[in-house]
Amino acid sequence: MSSSAHGIPTSETEVTNVSPHGLWLLSHGKELFLSYDDFPWFKDAPIGKVMNVEEVSPGHFYWPELDVDLGLKTIEEPGKYPLKASQ
User: Fold this and answer.
1) Percent share of the chain, pLDDT over 90
2) Which pairs from 7-12 meet CB under 8 Å and 24+ separation?
3) In the chain, which residues have pLDDT < 70?
4) What's the DSSP call for residue 4?
5) Distance between CA atoms of 81 and 40, rounded to whole angstroms?
6) Hey, where are the domains in the chain?
7) DSSP string, 15-71
């Protein structure tokens, strides 16, 4: 006898916390911090738009309502990729 899994599968990538300093992204068991200093697009964005993230390919994250896409390496080492939005 076999049984199938119950419930709806959850995404392996999600925003788990938002603070006055930045946000935390959990992807495949790895927690990543995105500070507003390095990623200013999220600072004044509505929380619903920040929470809506997709991993469009391995290590490539996209926030469709903000039109922001970031690679894992950019998040892990923002000093190596100093591209910032003009404000």
Assistant:
1) 75
2) 11/54, 11/55, 12/55
3) 1-11, 83-87
4) P
5) 14
6) 13-79
7) EEEE-SSEEEEEETTEEEEEETTT-GGGTTS-HHHHH--EEEETTEEEETTTTEEEE
Pairing mode, strands 30-35 and 13-18 = unpaired
Other Cβ atoms within 10 Å of 66 Cβ, number: 15
Q: Which residues pair with 63 in a beta bridge?
A: 68
The enclosing H or E element of 73 equals helix 72-76
Phi, psi dihedral angles at 12 (to 5 degrees): -85, 0
**CATH label, 13-79, candidates 3.30.2020, 3.80.10, 1.10.3680, 2.20.25:** 3.30.2020
User: What tokens were used for 38?
Assistant: 């390095």
Kindly calculate the radius of gyration of the chain based on its CA atoms and give it in whole angstroms: 15
The model's pTM: 0.80
